[in-house]
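User: What would this chain look like folded?
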Amino acid sequence: MAQMFTIEHAIDKNQILKEINQRLLSIAERGERILQATIDTGFENIWIASTDLGLNQNTGRYETRLVKKVGVYAFVMPTDPQARMVFLADTFHLPPDPVIERKRDLFEVILHESTHLGARTGDIALAPSPRKGYEISGKELLDDYHKKFPQIVKSPAFHNFVDRLAEQQNLPNLSPQAVEGALIFDDMLRVNFHMEDAEMIAVIIRDLAEQRNFDFKKRVTRNLDEQPLADQLATIFKNYALSSLFNLDQYHLSPHLNRTQEQENIKNSADPHEKMEAEKEKDKNTPNVKREEEKYIKGYSNRNRKKQC
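Assistant: Here's the prediction, encoded as structure tokens.
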């Protein structure tokens, strides 16, 4: 968990982990209610959209006829009172690729979409395609996030985060540049931003539920491939939704989250004060930004840390 949020060397690591635990519990409880309602209503909120799939004579499986690349497996409307999930059958019936793994575990897709509905998460960065035969690991997802960071801070999702943060902290002139710099050395702010991403939350919950290590690469299983998508969805919901998918005891008992331990004297790999000075030098020609950044840096960590961004 500490590795996923890059807080291994944070002085207040244990306190941050407790706050992450509280957030995950809240997300899990809301997701559990959504999934229970899905089962209780006979999956009426589960829709499947599809084009006319064609039979591959070589493999004996149905595949999409779409020429244009399809990258979305499902989508939701967060404000939909019926909490509908729309699954795109074409994406689950892509022709095989010799290099990348196109098969996506329905368990993870359901996790991803349920965080949209239950926690209003967004899609900050598209998850990378894992190597053929494997599922993406937490480490691979985090590495891809760091690689895409220059694009992420230009995205509408990041600017929306900045706007809400400015309103929350009463800093009307807070700039995206100031927040971008603060993400480097403000551990709690970085955690809050990471927990806005649906894929990040889905992978964390998946790894906790299945007790996976941060860098563990699981081989893709194909035992459900011959079942129609509707039957696969029903199987996943019934087998996982109320057991390992949102197992609240797992969070309470997780040694990664809830163990009590002595505060360790850990040296940071990089001095946060040096990083702060570098950011100030970068914005020295923009006095309004500099004043807002200084005000923000001094006030954020000590003001209402438990507010969700």
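The beta strands are 46-49, 54-56, 61-63, 74-76, 85-88. If you want, I can go into more detail on any region.
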